Amino acid sequence: MKAKFTISIIACSLFSITAFTQTGIPGIDYRACSAAERNNEISENNLTIKALAEQQNQHALDWTKKFYGKSSIDPVTGKKTILYVIPVVWHVIHNGGPENISKATIESEIAKLNEDYQKLNADIVNAHALFAGITADIQVEFRLARKDPNGNCTEGITRTKNAITYAMDESAKTIRPSWNSSTHTYLNIWQGSAIASGAGGYAFYPGYVPNNREGVVLIAGQLGNTVTHEVGHYLNLKHCWGDSNTPGDPNNCNIDDDVTDTPNTIGQTGCSETSQSCNSIDNVQNYMEYNFCDVMFTEGQKQRMHAALNSGVGKRSSLWSAANRTNTGTDDPYNQNPVCLLQGADFVYNKSKICEGDSVTFNDINTYNGTPTLWSWTFAGGTPSSSTLQTPVITYNTAGVYGATYSPGNGAGYATQASKSNIITVSTLTAQYTLPFAESFENVSQFNADWKIETQNGSGWTNSTNAAYTGSRAMRVNNVSNSTNDITELISPSYNLSTYTAPKLNWKAAYAKKIAGGNDILTIYSSIDCGTSWQIATVKTASSMSSAPATDASFTPSGASQWKDNTYTISAALASKTNVRFKFHFKSNGGNNMYLDDINIFGDNPTAVPEVKNISNFIVYPNPTNESANISFVLNSDVKKLKISVKDVLGKEVTTVINGQSLTAGKYNMSIDQGKKLSTGMYFIEFNADNKIKIEKLIVK
């Protein structure tokens, strides 16, 4: 253990002592850093690294003796000087959540880093009087890179979408590779949602890992002074209690951080100035402590960092070299706001399933390396089919499945186009089936045409021959191998329920729990807007679904006795709808396999509705509409007297499309009177052909 400067043992009674309020992140008592653990693991298992560390420690001690206490003021100008400019690239690894922090947040973090390393932080005035004389201006400036390793313009920020953000470790550096190369050296910061170990961040000491793994790993929920702390590790600073993994351990008094003016400490996790653990006042406000009341580095820590920056180990001396500053675009004059070619083009949309005549709103996401000022969109099947708006609203009038393309641009040009196929499903306003309806899943081609399977995680619904109640096929979820919260959905075609009174949904299901339990859930939803939104119809828990004895083996029903009959009486409100879909939503929670067969929808009494037999393909579009609509229909035979009128919910006629004309057989397209603006609400379009009536609903937004 190296000798400490005598300032660390001055009696605390000479000073006025106050308690500092801990200001951290809600739910986090102190900074959790796994740097010591990771660095110890490397040095203990690698004699070369261990020898290198000892060499670097001695180099830092020698450097400190030579430069300790030197002024950071330029004697000619009287101004503070910057000795080292360090290029930074900030790699955001996200999955579309709040961990995808903004450019403004990153720039704020760099500004905070510079405040802390240049002793410009406003809270430096709170430094304990015992240490006020050795608070250090590190004379380092961090700048986001303006050139990438290929010499291209950059804002110094990359964005990568990957689920590894939720449990980051060293593999994150493979998902988003380091920018370090033979000619370019950067301080690489990888930031995501969480680190697998549960830490708030970590960094390796110089030379402990290959050049492509040098840098800092952080989480979005713990930035601020944590960035300052981890960059300290990157510049060869240890925790104030040394390389112990356990702050607060009394044995830490026997471990040193190899800095001469930081008192030995057990490592405090509180912010009281009165804290003393190793026969001296603890420097609880040091950035290399675990507390969130940290405000300072010491002169000894400054010299240790300078020693690292003047060593070739870990390429730290390459960071601030003139050549590297030129290569990374961080030399003076520094471009604060570069206009670079945009990267990472991507977009989202507020609906993926709609009815004919409905609209979808599109938005840019994830674009980085600049701010879009130009937008180029194309929409297959959409109206309009292209747009230069930032947030276009596109209407789809014809049933089908469509894609879109998008390219953001700015003064540097347009980014590489993002293209997504089959993302918007537009369904007809006319139901695919009337009642009664039966589905046994035997006709695979018809099943594939009518039904949709959407699986979020794990094994999903499959049309399987493993077992069936009738025939040879049924729907199956191989749930025995699924994980908790895996979800799969089976979405039905559309039905006109209004032709029967009190319709019912009936199905056969086979399911077994595991012996240790497992509360899997089958939730049946209904939708009246082509799948845009869903409402719960009924819920079946594992206990209510069970149709066979519990088993830990992969369950397959052995016969009809291991199937359960289920019936749901459809609500009166839903039974009146003419375009309804159902969704069988299965959520795994550690249970066993699920089987589904023989879905039937039926009712007791057909509703007496006069049928217009000489008309087909009667469509009202767009529906919903903003103010007016079109009508399309085919007359299969001549009509002597045709009237088409629009009525409100009270039956009052609002306008007439055609009144008493005779028409020959053929296809017709007509518009509702454009001069008659329809206010928001529900209307009924009545089609009266020779006193036979057909009615369709129209919604005006």
Helix content: 10-25%
CATH architecture of the largest domain: 3-Layer(aba) Sandwich
Shape estimate: elongated
Number of domains: 4
The Rg value, from CA coordinates, equals 35 Å
Looking at this protein, list some descriptive labels.
Jelly Rolls, alpha+beta, 31% strand, 6-stranded mixed beta sheet, 701 residues, Collagenase (Catalytic Domain)
Structure report:
It is built from 11 helices and 37 strands. With 701 residues, it is α+β, with helices and mostly antiparallel strands. The protein folds into 4 domains: 22-68 and 81-244 and 302-328, 3-Layer(aba) Sandwich (Collagenase (Catalytic Domain)); 346-427, Immunoglobulins (Immunoglobulin-like, Sandwich); 433-606, Jelly Rolls, CATH 2.60.120.200; 615-700, Immunoglobulin-like.
SSE topology sketch:
Elements: H1 35-44, H2 47-67, E1 84-94, H3 103-117, E2 140-144, E3 157-161, H4 172-175, E4 187-192, E5 201-203, E6 216-219, H5 225-234, H6 299-309, H7 316-319, H8 322-328, E7 346-349, E8 353-355, E9 358-365, E10 374-379, E11 386-387, E12 393-396, E13 400-410, E14 413-414, E15 418-427, E16 433-434, E17 437-439, H9 444-450, E18 452-455, E19 461-464, E20 474-477, E21 487-491, E22 495-496, E23 500-501, E24 504-511, E25 521-527, E26 535-541, H10 542-545, E27 564-569, H11 572-575, E28 581-587, E29 594-602, E30 605-606, E31 615-621, E32 630-635, E33 639-648, E34 653-663, E35 666-671, E36 681-689, E37 692-700
Parallel strand pairs: 1-2, 1-3, 1-4, 4-6, 8-15, 16-22
Antiparallel strand pairs: 5-6, 7-9, 9-12, 10-11, 10-13, 13-14, 13-15, 17-29, 18-21, 19-20, 20-29, 21-28, 23-30, 24-27, 24-29, 25-26, 25-28, 31-32, 32-35, 33-34, 33-36, 36-37
Helix pairs in contact: 2-6
